[in-house]
Amino acid sequence: MISTIDYKQPDELGFYGDFGGAFIPELLRPNVEELNNAFLAMRDNATFQEEFQDLLRNYVGRPSPLYYSQYLSETYGAKIYLKREDLNHTGSHKINNALGQILLAQRMNKRKIIAETGAGQHGVATATACALLKMECIVFMGEKDMERQAPNVQRMRMLGATVIAATSGSKTLKDATNEAIRYWINNPDAYYLIGSVVGPHPYPEMVAYFQSVISQEIRSQLIEKEGKSVPDKVIACVGGGSNAAGAFHHFYCESTELIAVEAGGMGVDSGKSAATSALGIDGVLHGSKTILMQDEDGQVVEPHSISAGLDYPGIGPEHANAIRKERTLAINVTDQEAVDAAFELTRNEGIIPALESAHAIATLKKINFKSDEIVVINLSGRGDKDMSTYQKHYESIS
Ligand SMILES: *Cc1c(COP(=O)(O)O)cnc(C)c1O
User: Fold this and answer.
1) Torsion 356-358-362-364 (CA) sign
2) Beta carbon of 353 within 6 Å of any ligand 1 atom
3) 280 lines ligand 1 (CB under 6 A)
4) Domain boundaries in the chain?
């Protein structure tokens, strides 16, 4: 199947098919318009691009390697590459977007940055970029996530950020996002730095744009290694969907199969999962129309995932559209399958993945490959932040 629709391009109002848009209080409308104008201007601005590319290369350490995994290739019967976003400064893909938006905020003369965070990776990336560019930084984080990702809370504080606990609902990412939006409404002068391809237009398009460096690099790295720029499959985990959007970006109009991996939690039918596209229906969440997990009264269902970064009841509108139109295949992976995959990768490749990324690795057991297929798995982050969770599971199996 070769796609002729450009799934990565929303219309002028920010709609990807039926999904997206900007469902926000009128009070915030000027902010979002100002942001959209700044983004459109900077995207084509040579000085901005130079500065952004320089930071990606010399501060983040890009390009991240495209690593051929002999073990995974032999075990699963395909040519399997890992895109090593875990090797970026601060340990995940989040820094690509945080730096892009901070440069934009600086040009918009904003001094105060607010952000929400789940696993803490976006909070750390934002606090890092704020330290670098001398911005004030406030990060909202679910109380439960502050416990399970304690090392990242310490990092943010050391970097000079103020971390505010979200204590409502499930005390996770959705609640932190609600708090950040509430703060933004009361402080419209602040720049809201969203960490995934969610939120009102232009955030999904802008975040995907800053993350698209991932698929751009994959293309040129594959030419070097395989003599062709287009892989057969790209696999990425999806919380909101920014690492997936970045890994898919330059392949939507190619024959590449795109596989989005959602958190199945304790099992899709267990009532404890974050398998949004399997369980969700259309609705509006955090300023954008998308697929989300909700009950008959339209109340958001509390999601569950062992990984804080995937513990979100919605999905970015780009993915909602591509999954609904069957351009992207959604698969889900349980907590246990993800932990098992993390140990498998660690013991055989010496790479401890983030729990989120482990979901992408775990799908290898669920797919049949042709032996000459080229498969790229986006290894979105490293596992340092997840050591206490891994430790618990390690003790229980040894
Ligand atoms: C935040 C995070 C994710 C999930 O966010 P996306 O926007 O879906 O990419 C996945 N992996 C890691 C390592 C993360 O930090």
Assistant:
1) positive
2) no
3) no
4) 27-55+94-207, 61-91+212-397
Residue identifier of the C-alpha nearest atom 5 of ligand 1: 239
d(CA 285, CA 291): 9
Residue 23 tokens, joined: 């469902």
- Average pLDDT in the 292-306 region? 91
**Domain 61-91+212-397, CATH among 3.40.50.1100, 3.40.50.300, 3.40.50.2300, 3.40.50.720:** 3.40.50.1100
* Contacts of 348 by beta carbon, 8 Å cutoff, 6+ apart: 71, 72, 75
- The residue whose two tokens read 């330290």 is 131
At residue 148 the predicted structure's pLDDT band, cuts being 50, 70 and 90, is: confident
Q: Residue 64: which of 94, 101, 103, 104 has the closest Cα?
A: 94
Which DSSP symbol is given to 229?
Answer: S
| Fold of the domain spanning 27-55+94-207 | Rossmann fold (3.40.50)
pLDDT tens-digit profile of 45-73?
Answer: 999 999 999 999 999 999 999 999 999 99
- Is residue 230 within 8 Å of residue 207, measured between CB atoms? no
**Would you say the CB of residue 119 lies under 6 angstroms from ligand 1?**
yes
Q: Are 154 and 130 in contact (CB under 8 A)?
A: no
Q: Which of 8, 79, 94, 233 is catalytic?
A: 94
Q: Please indicate whether the domains covering 27-55+94-207 and 61-91+212-397 agree at the CATH topology level.
A: yes
Q: Are 190 and 112 in contact (CB under 8 A)?
A: yes
For ligand 1, atom 10, name the residue with the nearest CA.
356
In terms of DSSP bridges, do strands 162-166 and 136-142 run parallel, antiparallel, or are they unpaired?
A: parallel
> Does the pLDDT at position 2 exceed 80?
no
Cα(72) to centroid of ligand 1, in Å?
22
In this structure, what token pair is assigned to residue 216?
């751009």
Distance between Cα 121 and ligand 1 center (Å): 8
